Amino acid sequence: MRLGTALNAVRLKASWAIRDRFPDRKVVRNIQGVEMVLPWSHHLPDYTRGDSPYGKNLVALAAGLAATGDELTVLDIGANVGDSALQILDAAGGRVLCVEGDPYYFEYLDLNVGTDERVTVVEALLATGETAEALTPVRSGGTTRFEVAGESVGVPTVSAADLRAAHPEFARLRLAKSDTDGYEVLLVPAIAKAWADQPPVLFFEYDRRLTRMAGNDPEPIWDELAALGYDTVAIWDNGGRALGRAPIADLPRLSQQVDPTGPRDRRYWDVAVTHADDAAAREVLHRLVPETMGEHAS
């Protein structure tokens, strides 16, 4: 690590330590051109500083789907402070259904998008039978991980099927995003099944370490999505840099490259997955991520 990089890392950690002492202080920040209210301790302004590509992949994907002429309807699971919804609406318009189960971040979500008629907010955890246990939130740096608790902490839950039934205006779902710190491998297939007649593009964080910490197996998701008709995967590192595309059949092998102990930019992936019947979305992925994983590796 170069000296300048090391000094910046030290300064950043010092800043986080100070800001963590005032977790309830509300601040207004401009994140990649969009103004929002955040807790001072949130790391998002640090990740998106300067010309960082962090988070821009999801926004570009949404804009690309909107440009195909389809109505842009987005499901945002783990909506946090509403940053993804705000940036998507700013870049592409459309409508967003935001689901957030942590009451701490739901307050910020409501502050940021609660008066926007294009946004519907749901205070609940998206759950399957396997995740509908007594869970408690564990917060760090602007994100929430839920752990199994000894007793219920009163977090409401909703299944993907019930969520769709309660919001028929999102019956034709174009894009589903999930950032749930280890539960994606359960929730993303549940979303795909609930909307199987109108298969959305799926965008989620693939983190093998957090998945195992949540007590889940990171391996079966690729076969489960393939069985539902999904066939193409675009992959970005955790900083938002495109790594390449691959057929979903290759993902059980390729996903072994995600290494929590390896280089910082390979500790988790952002992935977008398109259905075999969705030629328009597949073309969007080809434009956003033109190389295959094999081409990139070479």
From TrEMBL:
What keywords are annotated for this sequence in UniProt? Methyltransferase, Transferase
- Keyword Mitochondrion assigned: no
User: What Gene3D superfamilies does UniProt report for this protein, alphabetically?
Assistant: Vaccinia Virus protein VP39 (3.40.50.150)
- What InterPro entries does UniProt report for this protein, alphabetically? FkbM_mtfrase (IPR006342), SAM-dependent_MTases_sf (IPR029063)
- Keyword check for Signal: no
Note the superkingdom of the native organism. Answer: Bacteria
One Gene Ontology MF term: methyltransferase activity
**Its GO biological process terms?**
methylation
| Name the record gives this protein | FkbM family methyltransferase
| Native source organism of the sequence | Nocardioides thalensis
